[in-house]
Amino acid sequence: GKVNGLAVMGSSIYSGTNSGIVIPIVAEVTPAGSRSEGKFIPTGKLGKIATEAVKNVSAIIKKHMGRDIANYDMHVQFIQIEGVEGDSASISVAVSIISAMENVPINQSVAMTGSLSVRGEVLPVGGVTSKVEAAISAGIKSVILPASNLDDVSISKDKMKGIKLIPVKTLADVLKNSLKDCKRKDEIIKELQSYERNPRQAREENPEPKPKPKSAPKIKKGKRPKKATKR
Does 101 reside within a domain? Predict the structure, then answer.
């Protein structure tokens, strides 16, 4: 799946010197080359934080969708960009992988930014104004962003006329507003929403095995334990 991710280029996402950019992020899922387990392979010149954030997405997908991702190699490529840092591409990576795994296309008129917790919650990120400005310049129609960042966007109403901001709180919200409509999309969202309503469901359905109690020594039939003799 291909996603239009959003990032900022500059010394700091909180400084006034950065500029936004639209980053195409592409994921491909193939059968694992190793018999032991699949690999998560991010490509592109990513910073340490960005690399770790991308790798964490695989664990989130496994936890929330119940997919056995160990049987697959996941290739995630950040196209035409160098020096990406931070975790704001987490939701973009998650959507691209889910799209590739489930064979559901992504709406290319949408761009997105947001971090992702292990519970599937969309967390706030920095530089949202610069990112939205980049989306406007690129002709993007809608921007998905953390609900907690909505008030951080500082752009004039005239510039905002051609674009729609979509605040989201969960991974299910992101998929609902980014995947193209189809039956499988509805099934995926239903699965995620079910987990979000009952986060203990997975643990209850797959409890850890309890240790077996030690059994008492068995006495063979026909034989009784010898009594101690008095001397």
Answer: yes
Whichever domain contains 105, its CATH number is 3.30.230.10
Task: Report pLDDT digits (tens) over 135-185.
Answer: 999 999 999 999 999 999 999 999 999 899 999 999 999 999 999 999 999
Q: Does residue 214 sit within a domain?
A: no
Write down the catalytic residue from 58, 96, 130, 131: 131
Domain that holds residue 177: 2-205
Residue 222 covered by a domain: no
Give the number of domains in the chain.
Answer: 1
Residue 210 annotated among the catalytic residues of the structure: no
Q: Is 36 a catalytic residue?
A: no
Q: Residue 38 has which token pair?
A: 């699949």
Q: Is residue 86 part of a domain?
A: yes
User: Could you say which of 88, 90, 92, 115 is catalytic?
Assistant: 88
Token pair in block for residue 33: 């080359």
Say which residues have a Cβ less than 8 Å from residue 173's Cβ, sequence separation at least 6.
122
pTM passes above 0.85: no
- How far from each other are the two terminal CA atoms of the chain, in whole angstroms? 87
